[in-house]
Amino acid sequence: xxxxxxxxxxxxxxxxxxxxxxxxxxxxxxxxxxxxxxxxxxxxxxxxxxxxxxxxxxxxxxxxxxxxxxxxxxxxxxxxxxxxxxxxxxxxxxxxxxxxxxxxxxxxxxxxxxxxxxxxxxxxxxxxxxxxxxxxxxxxxxxxxxxxxxxxxxxxxxxxxxxxxxxxxxxxxxxxxxxxxxxxxxxxxxxxxxxxxxxxxxxxxxxxxxxxxxxxxxxxxxxxxxxxxxxxxxxxxxxxxxxxxxxxxxxxxxxxxxxxxxxxxxxxxxxxxxxxxxxxxxxxxxxxxxxxxxxxxxxxxxxxxxxxxxxxxxxxxxxxxxxxxxxxxxxxxxxxxxxxxxxxxxxxxxxxxxxxxxxxxxxxxxxxxxxxxxxxxxxxxxxxx
Length: 385
Ligand code: ADP
Ligand code: MG
Hints:
single chain, six-stranded parallel beta sheet, 16 helices, elongated, binds adenosine-5'-diphosphate
């Protein structure tokens, strides 16, 4: 069990708190197209402001690679944050230096100061202790809710909290919730535990896949990932997306716990039996109706479900049926349900079933690393003992 110190244990009254968030929001120009990541921080912000803390907010956005680049400015977040909190939100054009220090020093209880992108400084990704010390000047306490960045040993995630003693650093409510639910997947108590996996490739997901093979009772595999497993079993996958480099891995982890599609939808929307195989030019782009039924049957009996990876090329409506049907089956199951991953989360939101999922993880890569059993630096530094 991982137990971290949480924000409610800190005596922040009347103090300044450095709040590391993940406001890496999708932008079209300067318009935020999805404010979920800002909304997710509202509970912690409310708690801090109720306790009369002044909050200095810091985040990364995109990959400016250590240089100032207006395209990756956090400025567009300011108005949305003010609107959602009703607070006075101030702005500092640089996350360190005299302007940020003066504004932080003058910040009153309940006020917020949003800092410019941390990654405008190379020190952030370098985990540079000097950069961390410059950030430390802004606040008396440190709180981290940036779960999606906590698998990175970056200055605001690792070096900075280490400059605060245990009484002055903690995880926020969002981070605590992530750990609580992901731990239900790593230390399963309610079985059957079913892992529903898909997406493009196996590559990049080998460790979580192996960890799930050990822990899950059944693994339902669809999407591009299934093609690779089918190819490993000698099925003719035609022109389907197959992660050739991972065929050996797929052979190695073969187990009777793995359930693969029995039919697939190809590019002209017709259904092909997997037993028959695909012709050279055919491409599997979704799971077929018999597979949907088979997977849904297994999900119905599950008590714990973890889902990562869409069942097909769901971005095209013709190939979204399998993914949408799984979203529904996961939502309707009488189980603890956790969804993690970039496109998987998008798909669940599109399906309209998001509010019936126990936990939608905010960190794609971080949630998979957690499930694989990796020690995440940002969580490690917040452990209670
Ligand atoms: P996540 O971001 O949830 O971890 P991935 O990044 O692994 O998921 O995969 C998502 C992508 O996989 C989607 O863009 C989807 O179009 C693609 N995909 C899923 N199944 C197939 C398939 N059969 N053929 C081609 N692409 C697929
Ligand atoms: Mg992805």
